[in-house]
């Protein structure tokens, strides 16, 4: 409209940006899988990233419960098995995002409070004490799973999800990352001659090599974690067989040597985890309430991680109904954790969400392949 104070034409009004099927710099989005050889390697890399959390949680908790290497190996296998099932279920029926569902540190404080409960202190047999504590944790997880199942499948969480955006996911994911940093980074100092080179190599492969080698194939940053783990493990094994730690303190040897874990020797060749393998769960109202609070924290954490995953996977904006459905299936995953006895509930793996951004591969098939590796190595214990 010429002159005057008339209203601007509709074409001049700001319009919302249309959703993009694929964001810039994403090599493979959620529906465009890479070639099978590359997909298998990327899936194995996702498995290695989540394996760190899977091993650390039982390693920290099982000795406090009275268990030895055999119990620790069985818990790790069970945690891997349930994580593989939960990841497949989430990618097929839940949010259908490339989200890895694994053990969560959120449940560790509540589990420690159950371990320190006075009703287990009078048990003289450490293995029997371990089983009693495990059954108490199972009961608490079974009750806590109802929170996410009800909020997710009833659609109540959908009303909250409407107010969440990619910006709101930043503090949620960042706080989880800081929590993992507080738990994991001090471990570097336990064996600085291995931990520091691994950190430097990861940064070098992911941030500097792509700018030095302009190949256009993104090999170094896409497989940076895999390259780093292989190189550093060979380096650590050479130090071990070369006798570098023969006169070191026992704690240093346990942290640095590649032959002191004891898990491979304790693990059976083939074993399929099954529900109630530790016995019938026991229930306590106080422990169940505390675990429900941990489940709510995991719910908020996973909501932020789901939002981050859809952006890294170059998917369209996540509808609140889909996010609520993903939370509901995550509640089913926590129920499975309680039935099988994994010592910890489950949530979306923030580490694997970060790996999506690092590799710029958000394919659903890659994460499903990683779930296959979880199930395979949980059955083949050696």
Automatic annotation (TrEMBL):
The keyword Membrane applies. The keyword NAD does not apply. It is a multi-pass membrane protein. It holds the Pfam family Xan_ur_permease. Its main location: membrane. Keywords: Membrane, Transmembrane, Transmembrane helix. It is found in: Membrane. GO terms for molecular function: transmembrane transporter activity. One of its GO terms (cellular component) is membrane. Residues 10-20 have a biased composition (Basic and acidic residues). InterPro entries: NCS2. Coiled coil: none annotated. The chain crosses the membrane at residues 40-63, 75-93, 99-118, 139-157, 223-245, 288-310, 322-343, 363-381. Residues 1-26 are annotated as: Disordered. It comes from the Eukaryota. Belongs to the nucleobase:cation symporter-2 (NCS2) (TC 2.A.40) family. PANTHER family: XANTHINE-URACIL / VITAMIN C PERMEASE FAMILY MEMBER. This is Nucleobase-ascorbate transporter 6. It comes from Trifolium subterraneum. The lineage of its organism: Eukaryota, Viridiplantae, Streptophyta, Embryophyta, Tracheophyta.
């Amino acid at each position: 409209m010429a002159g005057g104070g008339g209203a601007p034409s509709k074409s001049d009004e700001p319009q919302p940006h249309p959703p993009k099927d694929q964001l810039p710099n994403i090599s493979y989005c959620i529906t465009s899988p890479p070639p099978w050889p590359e997909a298998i390697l990327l899936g194995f890399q996702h498995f290695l990233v989540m394996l760190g959390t899977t091993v650390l949680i039982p390693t920290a908790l099982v000795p406090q419960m009275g268990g030895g290497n055999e119990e620790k190996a069985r818990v790790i296998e069970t945690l891997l098995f349930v994580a593989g099932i939960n990841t497949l279920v989430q990618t097929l029926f839940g949010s259908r995002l490339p989200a890895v569902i694994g053990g969560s540190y959120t449940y560790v404080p509540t589990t420690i409070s159950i371990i320190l409960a006075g009703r287990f202190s009078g048990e003289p047999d450490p293995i029997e004490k371990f089983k009693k504590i495990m059954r108490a944790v199972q009961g608490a997880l079974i009750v806590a799973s109802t929170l996410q199942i009800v909020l997710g499948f009833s659609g109540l969480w959908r009303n909250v999800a409407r107010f969440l955006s990619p910006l709101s996911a930043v503090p949620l994911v960042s706080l989880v990352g800081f929590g993992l940093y507080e738990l994991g980074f001090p471990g570097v100092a336990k064996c600085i001659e291995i931990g520091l080179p691994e950190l430097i190599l990861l940064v070098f492969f992911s941030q500097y090599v792509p700018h030095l080698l302009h190949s256009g194939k993104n090999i170094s940053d896409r497989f940076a974690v895999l390259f780093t783990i292989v190189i550093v493990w060979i380096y650590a094994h050479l130090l071990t067989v070369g006798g570098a730690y023969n006169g070191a303190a026992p704690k240093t040897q346990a942290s640095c040597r590649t032959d002191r874990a004891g898990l491979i020797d304790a693990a059976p060749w083939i074993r399929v985890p099954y529900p109630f393998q530790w016995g019938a769960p026991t229930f306590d109202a106080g422990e169940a309430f505390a675990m429900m609070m941990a489940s709510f924290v995991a719910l908020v954490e996973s909501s932020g991680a789901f939002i981050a995953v859809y952006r890294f996977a170059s998917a369209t904006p996540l509808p609140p109904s889909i996010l609520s459905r993903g939370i509901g299936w995550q509640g089913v995953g926590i129920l499975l954790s309680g039935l099988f006895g994994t010592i910890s509930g489950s949530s979306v793996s923030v580490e694997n969400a970060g790996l999506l951004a690092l590799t710029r591969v958000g394919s659903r098939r890659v994460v499903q392949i990683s779930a296959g590796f979880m199930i395979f190595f949980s059955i083949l214990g050696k």
